[in-house]
Design brief:
Elements (H helix, E strand, L loop, with lengths): L1 E10 L2 E11 L4 E5 L6 H9 L6 E6 L2 E2 H4 L1 H4 L2 E4 L11 H11 L6 H10 L15 H9 L9 E5 L7 H16 L3 E5 L9 E5 L4
Parallel strand pairs: 3-8, 3-9, 6-7, 7-8
Antiparallel strand pairs: 1-2, 1-4, 4-5
């Protein structure tokens, strides 16, 4: 179970949000919504452990993630709102290296399988710099097909994707949830997943 307890976020001299509480169990998805500047990305970074709340705690199975440290990080896959692809690396290299940096070594065969499934068949040897923004996003999201983590934290995963790709990502998310996984995401696009709950942030 993932829980947020009385979370407060401060950036500079401005408080973005306070007293944010949530609870997410296996098989659940939480969509974080709110206007620009309300702290959506900041909250996701807190949940990842990349930044600390000004007050409050984030718990994983009843323990604070600060105490768990690497045991928690090993359970998380985070994909930020930028694709994170390296221009001079090939599509295949980007997937293999990003997965390795996240702690998952994958074979060439498994990487090819994931890239084919995500819609990048025939582009595996291309440098990322020649890809469209939507294709770069697919490269980043291909990590979801090769990771074995229960908790996915996704910042605008659907940005730059066409209708078919959005449907594909929704299918991947639904399979993850059916298998007992969890997901926290932000998106400005409509997402049609029955297990989704909403956490609404307001401008302070």
């Amino acid at each position: 179970m993932l829980q947020g307890i009385n979370l407060v976020c401060v950036r500079g001299d401005r408080e973005l949000f306070q007293d944010v509480n949530f609870s997410l169990e296996a098989g659940g998805l939480m969509q974080v919504r709110g206007p620009n500047g309300s702290g959506k990305t900041s909250l996701l970074r807190m949940i990842c452990g990349l930044s600390q709340p000004a007050a409050g705690d984030i718990l994983w199975n009843g323990q604070t993630i600060r105490e768990l440290e690497n045991d928690y990080y090993a359970a998380v896959t985070y994909i930020g709102h930028l694709s994170g692809t390296k221009d001079d690396l090939t599509v295949l290299e980007n997937l293999q290296i990003s997965s390795a940096l996240a702690g998952t070594e994958i074979s060439i065969d498994r990487a090819y399988e994931a890239l084919h499934f995500i819609g990048l068949k025939g582009r595996e040897a291309l440098p990322a710099k020649v890809l469209s923004q939507g294709q770069r996003r697919r490269v980043a999201l291909a990590r979801l097909l090769v990771c074995n983590t229960p908790l996915w934290i996704l910042d605008e995963p659907l940005v730059a994707l066409d209708v078919m790709a959005v449907k594909l990502i929704q299918d991947i998310l639904e399979k993850h949830l059916r298998n007992g996984g969890m997901a926290v995401l932000t998106t400005h696009q409509e997402i049609k997943i029955s297990a989704a709950s909403i956490l609404e942030l307001q401008l302070a």
